[in-house]
Structure formats: structure tokens, C-alpha cells
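Whiteboard transcription, Tuesday session. T.W. wrote the C-alpha cells on the left side:
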């Protein structure tokens, strides 16, 4: 089975008024699991992974893929209880173990709390996936308020600093940090100005930390999605833009979360033991200057 036969080319117009959006309200639902897209062989057996924004969208697909590969999954989410509990149930249906922690990753003390709770429960941390994000359209830079700019950077950049700082004392040789950046970090975006800037910062953080942590054997990489059908889309754009979302890619459709999950598995696995400071671009054929 493939994505094209399981997902419509044209999306129904829709909008959600609250970020980061609720997957359960989307039509159609994002594809986070599909026969033929995952052949688990225990690549992450006995690993403990913290995944921010792991309740829905890309995070849900990664959480489920990690659980299938044998990892214990800690999902950190803001307030989307229904989505988080659905993902937890999906993982448990695969005989996996999932631990939910609710709170604001833009708060450093909360990230410290996450690290303490994970160590208390699992005694180790091996993988950090900084995936949670928010974005807001603005027609002009003058429309971006100080509070919006600070909020975007707190969620998209500061949270990665905080989560990594909190977990780093528990990471060892062979462990992995993976950041979700964006095609907008490379190509820019006309109306996602502060979001693009934050993803550019996250891209450079990936490269700098890769150099800084190489001597410890801790790898730092990134995945840069193009247009992917996640709750962030209907909660960011109006009806008309959602209906055309992803159609400008060479593949003429948005990507699905399941189509990114294997990249995150690979980067966290021993198969990527000599890869650090790199970004995997998954964008349906949109070429970027790296």
C-alpha cells in the first residue's frame, strides 16, 4: 500500500483556532502508521526516548515507530490530552511502554522536571527528539508582536536548549539528539517569518552541538520536513490555504507523518553511528541549498 492510494490529493477546507492543533479534529486524519512502512527489528531495543510534541503529527508517527523498534517512549505535550492518550493507546497496542508528561517546554524548570521524572521511572535517557513547535502567519514583520516572537522562539528553540541541558548529564556514548527543523530554515517563508527564523536557529544549534558533543560520542542531527499534514497546518492557515496545502511540491501532495518516521529511527540507531551534524530533508522533491 502507498500514500497516494490512501490519501486525497485535495484537502477539504478547514481551520482550527487553537495551536498546536488537535489531530482528532482533522479531516482526513494524518497517516501515522501504514502497512509496509515499518519493519521493526529492534533497532532501539531497551532505549528510552523523550519526544516533545509526541502526541500527534510527526511526533505521533515517530513515537509509534520508536515503540515498535523496542524503545520506551516518553511523550511530552502541551495540553492535547485526547491526542496524547490516543498515541499512548496505540503504543500499548503494540506491546510498547509509553509515559505521558504534560506541560510547557518553553519553561526551563518544566524541562528539568521532565528529566527528573524520566530518570525516576526508567533510570536512563538515550534519545531526545525536539519536535514540538508552533507557527503563526504574519503578512509583515510589523505584525509580529514581541510576545509572539518570544513565544515562537521559546517553543521552537529555547525548549531544545532546555531539554538538552536537562538530559545531557544522563546521555552517554552512542546516545542521540534529533531536532525537527524545517524546509523554511533553508528556503524561508513569506508569511512564517519568526517561525522560519526559529528553525534556522535550530539548524545551527544542531551543527554546533554536533561539534561540541562529538568527543562524548553523542550524535546530534536533524530532520527538515517540507509540507507535512499535521495539526499545525489547520491551526496555522485559513480554509483556502489548507485546501491547497502541499500541492506545490513536485509530488503534488503534502507528506504524511509516517513518511518521516523511519528517518528518525535511523538517526537514533546504530546504523547512523558515524552521522552527526547532518540534516535529512523530507519534502517531496523540493530542492534546498544546504
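and on the right, the sequence the group agreed on:
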Amino acid at each position: 500500500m502507498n500514500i497516494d492510494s490512501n490519501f486525497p490529493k485535495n484537502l477539504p477546507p478547514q481551520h482550527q483556532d487553537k495551536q498546536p492543533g488537535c489531530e482528532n479534529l482533522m479531516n482526513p486524519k494524518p497517516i501515522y502508521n501504514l502497512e509496509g512502512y515499518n519493519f521493526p527489528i529492534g533497532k532501539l531495543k531497551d532505549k528510552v526516548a523523550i519526544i516533545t510534541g509526541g502526541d500527534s503529527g510527526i511526533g505521533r508517527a515517530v513515537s509509534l515507530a520508536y515503540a515498535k523498534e523496542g524503545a520506551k517512549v516518553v511523550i511530552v505535550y502541551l495540553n492535547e490530552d485526547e491526542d496524547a492518550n490516543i498515541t499512548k493507546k496505540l503504543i500499548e497496542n503494540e506491546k510498547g511502554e509509553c509515559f505521558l508528561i504534560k506541560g510547557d517546554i518553553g519553561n526551563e524548570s518544566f524541562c528539568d522536571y521532565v528529566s527528573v521524572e524520566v530518570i525516576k521511572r526508567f533510570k536512563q535517557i538515550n534519545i531526545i527528539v525536539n519536535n514540538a513547535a508552533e507557527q503563526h502567519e504574519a503578512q509583515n514583520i510589523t505584525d509580529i508582536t514581541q510576545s509572539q516572537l518570544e513565544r515562537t522562539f521559546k517553543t521552537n528553540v529555547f525548549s531544545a536548549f532546555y531539554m538538552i541541558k536537562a538530559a545531557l548529564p544522563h546521555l552517554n556514548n552512542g546516545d542521540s539528539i534529533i531536532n525537527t527543523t524545517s524546509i523554511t530554515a533553508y528556503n524561508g517563508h513569506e508569511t512564517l517569518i519568526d517561525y522560519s527564523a526559529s528553525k534556522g536557529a535550530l539548524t545551527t544549534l544542531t551543527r554546533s552541538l554536533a561539534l561540541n558533543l562529538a568527543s562524548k560520542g553523542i550524535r546530534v542531527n536533524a530532520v527538515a520536513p517540507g509540507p507535512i499534514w499535521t495539526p499545525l497546518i489547520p491551526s496555522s492557515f485559513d480554509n483556502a490555504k489548507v485546501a491547497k496545502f502541499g500541492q506545490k511540491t513536485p509530488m503534488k501532495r503534502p507528506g504524511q507523518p509516517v513518511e518521516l518516521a523511519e528517518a528518525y529511527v535511523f538517526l537514533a540507531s546504530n546504523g547512523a553511528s558515524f552521522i552527526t551534524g547532518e540534516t535529512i530533508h523530507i519534502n517531496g522533491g523540493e530542492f534546498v541549498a544546504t
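Someone added at the bottom: The mean pLDDT is 92.
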